[in-house]
Amino acid sequence: MTPSLEARGVVRDFSGFRALNGVDFSLYAGELLTVFGPNGAGKTTLLRILGGGLRPTKGEVRLHGESVDVGDREWRRSIGVVSHQGFLYGQLSARENLIFFGRLFGLDRLEERVAEALVNVGLANRSGSMVRTYSRGMRQRLALSRALLHEPEIVLLDEPYTGLDAHAAGALRELLESLKDGRRTVVLVTHALTQGLDLADKVAIQVRGRFVRFESKDALPTENFEAFYREVVETAVEAA
Amino acid sequence: MTYLGQVWAIVHKDLTIEFRTKERFAAMASFAVLVGLLFHYALDVTVVRPQDIASGVIWMTVIFSALLGVGRTFYLEEEDGAMSGLLHSPIALDALFVGKFIANYILVAMITVLIFVVFAGFFRLNFGGHFVALIGIVSLGAVGLVGILTLFSAVSSRTRMGESLLPVLAFPLLVPVVVYGVDATTRILVGRPLSEVAGNVRMLAAFALLSIMAGVVLFRFVVEE
Questions:
Q1: Separation in Å, CA of B78 to nearest CA in chain A
Q2: Beta bridge partners of A206
Q3: Which of A66, A154, A224, B170 has its CA 20 to 30 A from that of A131?
Q4: From the CB of residue B74, how many other CB atoms can be counted at a distance below 10 Å?
Q5: Is B48's pLDDT higher than 90?
Q6: Judging by beta carbons within 10 Å of its beta carbon (0-12, 13-18, 19+), is residue A179 exposed, middle or buried?
Q7: Residues of B with CB under 8 A from a CB of A
Q8: pLDDT > 70? residue A43
Q9: What's the confidence (pLDDT) of residue A162?
Q10: Interface pTM (ipTM) of the complex?
Q11: β-bridge pairing A154-158 and A185-189
């Protein structure tokens, strides 16, 4: 069986600074990889490469075994990105935001899709309100809806829990659980150890641009994960 | 999705936000009216004939008004990281430029009409039978103007200096618009035949074409990392 998403020796340099130093992983359709790591580990750089915002200096990204140019427009049809920013326009309504992004993707049945998407994230009754009037949690649900509107097979989540209260984080978690439908491959970058671990099928710990651990969740001490994570990071930092 | 569909999506989105907030239009319109008012009081019309200086004043007002409005076009995309959302979509980057250009042009065209009305009122200018020719010349010059400003507002929005960098970058390139636009407008205002402005119109058209081509080709290098 061919992995859905692979990274092979991905390196990214910024003016002499190596932000990513040979990242390798393979994910099969339906798997969710959570990437943990301290600040400056290169997690967001990795997501920016997978999201097409940056090209790797070396290495390659593969989709179903085929090497892809992450800067290519066709690659962007395969991915949906949710960040701590919503990529939304506050002066447009939720519906108008989704219609706009749907047009960029050239989606058919757009009105119907948008209506369904808003129902799925529980925003149908506020679909006509300007997004600037939304709470942080509502914006994040709308951002997820935007990212999934074109039904991408790869979903990239960059710190989606940032700024959410417990209730909003719980609502988002339920939506993220629904992504694990066996069709999508998800990469989640987060500092939220408990939430990230709960959702994960595979876990990576990234330190100084490298995956120092990349394991199935079953192979990890989930009961005492925080202590394990700290030890792995400290050991990797000392060794570097 | 066709290329034109993507262009339309950008134009529709930008104009919807602008007509809803009127932020840029209000700034541009206020500036245009205030300039007209200040010149009205600053000029002694018993010494200077308004039609002798009107073309220069009108063009400079159009340019500075456009700078105010077009300079903020990419700040719409900075809020909540919307630019990243665009870059994660399959939009052709030149379609993004063209969409921004058209939305900006519509805004500048509306302000240009207002500027003509304001200056006609304050300076009692009689555009006479050449009103259409005047609008044509300014509209053509505005294509080049908006093309350059749209491209360089993308550059300035990605720098720490922000909007303050825009005039420094754009004004040297706008010299042809000022030179040929002012000359053509002056000739029309003093009643010279239209055939006298044909050369200026050709230069303005060439500059308009060049500015759009430069924007279409160079825009991706500005927004891609």
A1: 9
A2: A211
A3: A154
A4: 22
A5: no
A6: buried
A7: 1-2, 5-6, 8-9, 12-13, 16-17, 20-21, 76, 79-82, 84-92, 224-225
A8: yes
A9: 83
A10: 0.87
A11: parallel
A contacts of B92 (beta carbons < 8 Å): 73
Q: What is the pTM of this model?
A: 0.90
Helices (H), chain A: 43-50, 73-78, 94-104, 110-120, 136-148, 166-178, 193-199, 225-239
Q: Which two tokens stand for residue A231?
A: 């030890």
From the list A145, A109, A107, A108, the residue with the least C-alpha distance to A126 is A145
Task: Search chain A and give the residue with CA nearest B22.
Answer: A91
Distance CA B201, CA B141 (A): 9
Percent of chain B topping pLDDT 70: 99
User: pLDDT value at position A156?
Assistant: 94
Q: What chain B residue is nearest to A73 in terms of C-alpha separation? A: B90
pLDDT at B189: 84
Q: How large is the C-alpha radius of gyration of chain A?
A: 18
Determine the length of chain A. 240
Both structure tokens of B48: 């200077």
Q: Do A104 and B90 touch (CB under 8 A)?
A: yes
Contact B214, B152 (CB under 8 A): no
Q: Please tell me which residue of chain B has the smallest CA distance to A107.
A: B1
Q: What is the per-residue pLDDT for A200?
A: 93
Which stretches of chain A sit within 8 Å of chain B by CB?
Answer: 51-54, 71, 73-74, 76-77, 79, 81, 83, 85-92, 96, 100-101, 103-107, 139, 146
What is the amino acid identity at position B52? D
Which residues are registered as beta bridge partners of A6? A26, A62
